[in-house]
Amino acid sequence: MDRIFWTMRGSGRHMAAMIALILSLLIAYMPVHASAITGVRLQGDELVVDFDAPVEGASVFGLQGPDRVAIDVDGINHASFAERDSALGYVRGGQFDEDTARIVVDLHQPVTLSDFRFADDGRSLILALARTSATDFARKLVANRQSLLAPAMARRVAEPGGYSVSMKLAPPRTSRNLPTIYGRDDPRLPLVVIDAGHGGHDPGAVSPHGGKLEKDVTLAIAKAVRDKLVASGQARVALTRDTDSFIVLQNRYAIARKLGADLFISIHADSAENQAASGATVYTLSEVASDREAQRLASRENKADIINGINLGAAGDDLSSILIDLTQRETMNISADFAELLAREAKSNMRVKANPHRFASLMVLKAPDTPSVLFETGYLTNEDDVAFLSSSAGQRRVAQGISSAVQVHFAKKIALR
């Protein structure tokens, strides 16, 4: 195969030019605001977190040794509340990083999450926690981090001085410096970001066959994919993590966007009650999820760097929603094409489900301008799958399938230009 040289996505270039033209007459200055936690209260078995303004989103997960429930809230710059004991456990927390708060409940006994939602105005987060067994706690909360987007934010009223004040959409942020880019130092080569799912205190799925952890399996596969692509000379590659480290979901695709990636692939390994379940699946963002995300993004005031580096900060909600929707639909089409290609190329190297292309509202797929897929490489609850995915030979086979799909994908894009 001839070497692939990739300057930039042609359609993305035309989109950026169109947006720049539309926005050239719309110049405004808009201060930003971040939210604070005003209180944490217990209403029966419901934990309610109150904010002084709408936030960006939240996620909840379980931790063991001792048993705890942790809630991360994004879009918070001040998290101060009275710690207290309750029927569920001791509630504590504080600022996790510059714009994320973490609330922890040191449990008196294991719980499961029966409801997880924002209030309609986005100023409260409600979690219903029901008592359960230690096994159920580990399977449902420890092994599965659940994420939730806040409702669309209401634009704030204009203040004196000729400008509007509304919620900030922060530029893509990461919890560390940007990762190393591997491969030939040639910006004409496409850049692929490989995301190894889970990590750190979040193990992901735990196999009943030998105790293999999803976070370890995905990291090994991600490194194998990196090595295969770099060896091909057809792409540059970066990993969201190359150690056993934890990265919040939004930061994973934020890394890809900050690097200007042409493709984002998140690697996971599934689990199921039915241990006979087997084979790989490929997920892309659903149409419904796209519409909600476009609405959420359009409701924010500072839309800097949302679409191809073009600042949408001065655009009204209607215009911003249209522009974001156009870009996101194009991105979804590219993602879907790659998902079909990945399923086809993987079949000759590993077990793949029938009708493997699925759609879901997954947080890591929600970058509006980076084609993204989530590849569930198999089931850690299936004895054959886990043996394959945890072996060096199996990881190389997975990497071969992904590498072939990536090379064909970019070769087709160049051929169509």
Structural class, judged by helices and strands?
alpha/beta
Low-confidence residue ranges: 7-11, 20-33, 152-176, 289-315
Q: Give the fraction of residues assigned to helices.
A: 25-40%
Radius of gyration: 22 Å
Task: Kindly describe this structure.
The chain is α/β, with parallel strands linked by helices. Helices cover 30% and strands 28% of the residues. It is built from eight helices and 18 strands. Helix 1 runs antiparallel to helix 6 (317-346) and helix 6 (317-346) crosses helix 8 (392-416). It starts with 9 loop residues before the first helix and ends with a helix. Mean pLDDT is 78; it is low at 7-11, 20-33, 152-176 and 289-315.
Question: What's the layout of helices and strands?
Answer:
Elements: H1 10-23, E1 35-43, E2 46-51, E3 57-63, E4 68-74, E5 76-79, E6 84-85, E7 89-97, E8 100-107, E9 111-118, E10 124-131, H2 134-142, E11 146-149, E12 181-182, E13 191-196, H3 214-232, E14 236-239, H4 249-259, E15 263-270, E16 280-285, H5 287-298, H6 317-346, E17 352-360, E18 372-379, H7 383-389, H8 392-416
Helix pairs in contact: 1-6, 3-8, 5-6, 6-8
